[in-house]
Amino acid sequence: MANLILILGDQLTRDISALENADRDRDVVVMAEVHDEATYTNHHQKKIVLLFSAMRHFARQLESDGWQVHYQSYHPDNQHQSLEAVVGEQVKRINAEKVITTECGEWRLHDQISGWHKRLGVPVEIRPDTRFIASKQEFADWAEGRKQLRMEFFYREMRRKTGLLMTSEGEPEGGQWNFDADNRKKWTGKPQAPAQFRIEPDAITRDVIALVDEHFSDHFGTTDDFHFAVTAEDAQGALEHFIDYALPCFGDYQDAISDTEDWLFHSILSPYINSGLLDPLTVCEAAARAWYSGRAPINAVEGFIRQILGWREFVRGIYWMNMPGYAQENRLGNTRALPWFYWTGDTKMRCMHKAIDATRRNAYAHHIQRLMVTGNFALLAGIKPEEICDWYLAVYADAYDWVELPNVLGMVMHADGGYLGSKPYAASGKYIQRMSDHCANCHYKVNKSTESDACPFNALYWHFIDRHRDDFAKNPRMGMMYRNWDKQKPERREALLRRAGDLLANLEQL
Ligand SMILES: Cc1cc2nc3c(=O)[nH]c(=O)nc-3n(C[C@H](O)[C@H](O)[C@H](O)COP(=O)(O)OP(=O)(O)OC[C@H]3O[C@@H](n4cnc5c(N)ncnc54)[C@H](O)[C@@H]3O)c2cc1C
Ligand code: SF4
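# iron/sulfur cluster complex -> structure
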């Protein structure tokens, strides 16, 4: 009897575990563009194009490799609007002996699939996702008994495990584990940022763009100027482009923000790594080779590898160890609604406008825009974690619950009480001024704090510090902030809190 092999939209990898030991003549691969998955959040239009087109290309590839594929294309009137309904119908059609799939990346779907064996009446085998460098169990074993989980220590384990940037004596290359201190330069226009890697849409992608324009035009973003890769071959091209042109400066300008450049020296590889078009270990190995062959400096290569081998694996481990409760965390007790300008970019705050506008156009903003601009603002303004998490899940082409949630709820919002990060990334306008050229073009004045044209980040920062004294005063990494706050004259503190109160009461008008 045949097995039904389900491949999800972020499992577009030819050696995905669900296909292991399968019989191409007997088994049937099922892939489906379903309404429920495309609409459970307000996914960016480019994200839908990317995934549907990449899925269609992948299904063709499987067919040309000899697999039998049942593929459901999206239509709003399809009889089956959920994965469960599509799989259920195909189980009956082929009289499947069992369903085989690779573990998925979201608790929501994992929970549904875990109940399929009962509801569909066939065994469901869920295989580990071997594309991650650490298994869920390996992470849980590492975390066990530790009072605090810190990425840096987990990352070192992963360096040892993979041998990446390790000497034959088992020491880190360059004599240090971490070169972050070298990676904080402001970018002033030089060296020139490389041209963005582009793939022009082929006939399949053009069909999907038309479909998204017709049925998803009310979703965030736009399909205009779609140029993501949608096949593994083209994603490999994007990796090579990054290594050749951007990696050498990746480290130096990793934390920089620009008023004119959307992409700077970032890799823009997360949409491909997360959907399975690129393998994370292969990406790290390519970067390491660039250092060994003298094509990129150690601070760039180590910094880049740490993001994938360290942060990416670490947040995944945190997610699976703590779901589903993690998504409900709100330790700072935030209650404020997400301002509407997160969806429109219509705000006089230049840094926010620029980050949101890039997000709307590109389904992309780089890490520091996500963390220190849109994220920092949400933290300072006390936005409800579930609303800001939902925004991040919707607006980026690389967003999946397992990676978005810990980054937003833990790293940005500190809503998990410091489980993921030892201190909140709260910052005033001075940080944004130091790392970007936005402030010179802004309606607000970064050097002012209490006046009506003062940078909103400044007073909101002190309001955040003041209102969370009970949460942070004992945190040794926050002591300096409290000493600085307490040192200010009472009239000054009062004026700052008054200005922040006005800002919080009028967030929509900023
Ligand atoms: C609030 C917030 C939300 C985020 N949401 C997502 C998300 O939904 N999906 C996502 O893939 N990343 C997310 N990140 C992490 C990071 O911002 C993106 O991975 C990165 O911006 C992707 O662009 P890039 O490929 O050019 O990355 P680069 O700067 O070139 O970094 C290289 C790679 O490292 C990995 N990486 C870097 N930082 C992280 C991180 N903190 N967590 C996990 N992987 C990381 C990515 O795979 C990335 O492709 C988020 C970060 C923040 C602060
Ligand atoms: S002045 Fe404030 S709001 Fe304006 S760009 Fe600078 S940090 Fe952003």
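# post-check
The chain is about 50% helix and 5% strand.
Residues 349-351, 429, 432-433, 438-439, 442, 444, 446, 455-457 surround iron/sulfur cluster (ligand 2) (CB under 6 Å).
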